[in-house]
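The aim of this short unit is practical: by the end, you should be able to scan a pair of folded records and say something sensible about each. We start with the first protein, listed as its amino acid sequence and then its structure tokens.
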Amino acid sequence: MLRPRVAIGTIPAYHPPLAGRDGIRLDFNENTIGCSPRVLERLRQIGIEDLSRYPEKQLAEDRMAKFLGVASSEVLLTNGVDEGIHLLCQTYLEPGDQALIVVPTYSMYRIYMMAAGASVISVPAGRDFAFPMADVRERITARTRLIAIANPNNPTGTVVPIDELLELAAYAPDAAILIDEAYFEFCGQTILPRRHEHSNIFVARTFSKAYGLAGLRMGALMGDADQVLSVRRVCSPYNVNCAALACLPVALDDHAYVQRYVSEILASRTRLQDALQTAGIPFWPSQANFVLMRVGATPDDSKHFTERMRTRGILVRDRSANYGCEGCVRITLGPKEHTDRLLNALHETFEELDIAQGTRS
């Protein structure tokens, strides 16, 4: 009887709640108003010949390299950041190796690491989800081959200082260090200019968040040219579709659109955090386009809260399944009109569930 590898049977299932997402979608950290109108116009120009040919990504990679201020040989475009994570696992992990994450964090790190046959070492975050550098260093061994860090982190919105990341790369020179900067635009901190200090550093960026292109699945992986060449060897030459490649330069060129959107999100983040503080709701100050808050002590509390928000047309994400997040809900930020509706719904839901008062802003 045909059987999958043993490692496959041990991988936890990931079930994104995509079905029935009616309402304002503040549950997936997506851009809630969509991409630049210029991107839509470029999509309309894609013709039959574009669709009938295999996509060529060299020009788009050159454009991305120029945008990021790196060499073309240091960039690999990927089918979303997820593929970049997968490729790193396939390139650097073998059965018996160890990979390290700090929890809570993005679930797909663990899944791709386990799929490669590696043992995943989960290091609990510190107080208020601070990065536990001493504990991480303590868990690094000669078998550690990959360390993945979301910066800002998902679902907490916390950030690791650049100097600490560089310290980690120096301490584990035989491990690939992935710095996943999916939420970079909402934070502004990046390790990219200092990546050359250590050849084991990789930086990932996405266009699913600030750029509103989640449906096109476009990501980028940057690193030392020789290391990127190794990763490219396990990557399909046609991994990014023609629509994404056509739209990327247009999205990069529309700086004003992205800046306006990010400015609105930052204003909404301040409004939400101020409202939660006024209401006495525990939350963690965020450097991303979302805020994690605690609405109770148990998974049932966050489940009930999420359900009541849904009845008011607002979708938020129950994060109780994550380490240290029992009773927690994550809320994605949208522009002003979405935040107006969010704060009204929060006020009503807090009142209905007898959690707190005074969330209007």
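Turning to the second protein, read its sequence before its tokens, just as you did above.
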Amino acid sequence: MSAVVTRPPQVRLPEAVARKPRRSWTRFVLPTYVTAFILYLSFPIFIIILFSFNQTRGGFGTSPRVKTTWLGFTTDWYGRVFELSDLTATVRHSLTIGFASAIAATILGTLLGLALARYRFRGRGGADFAIFLSISSPEIVLGAALASFFVALGVTRGFGTLFLSHTMFSIAFVAVTVRARAAGLDRSLEAAAMDLGATPVTAFVKVTLPLLAPGILAGFLLAFALSMDDFVISQFTQGPFQMFPTWVFGATRVGIPPHVFVFATIIFLTGATLALLLALVSRRRG
């Protein structure tokens, strides 16, 4: 007799019903918050750009002044941006001090940040404390202290005092930026370069410096922006060498001319473009 093979009964599983996952409303909270935060921070900038195209009328000496009402679109102010000689001079002063102090602060801050990130030495804790103190101290304290220091020495306030003051408070920001970049570098790359015959100086110039370049450039841009933006320390140390922020503050008493908004728009767009290029270069290298 042949054996009969019986198969176990097949159990049909219920077909899975494809359901779309429920989308919770909470997923919109973070994007909404971030968007609102960015708009909140950017709103004054949008107003500046908008009013640089406003067709204003009125009197600021021989030049119109800004009004809060929109009177029409015009690009005339961009063609007349250098019309006010005093304003143009203060912008030139701010750019000169900004570039000079940013270069000096970048050189000193880069060396300081690299030393703090790589070496242990006596006084390192004091250097860290000095950097923290420089960043956290109110500008009114720094400005008053610097003004008292220059007066006590009998130094005439002007370009020199502004340059020293802006360089002084920018070094800490550059050092922190470069230090963060240097702390993440692989030192074995320098060791490999020296194993292949490079001197320590050559290894630093051809290996370390290019790797630090994004941090150095970020520190330079930060120092320049801080210098251009500074009002309190400039007010205490400028003397007759007036800066752009202090001139604008004085102009608010009688009315701000639209040329100020044009200069502010140009400065902002230039800085935003440089920051965007820096981000693109950093992403490409990364």
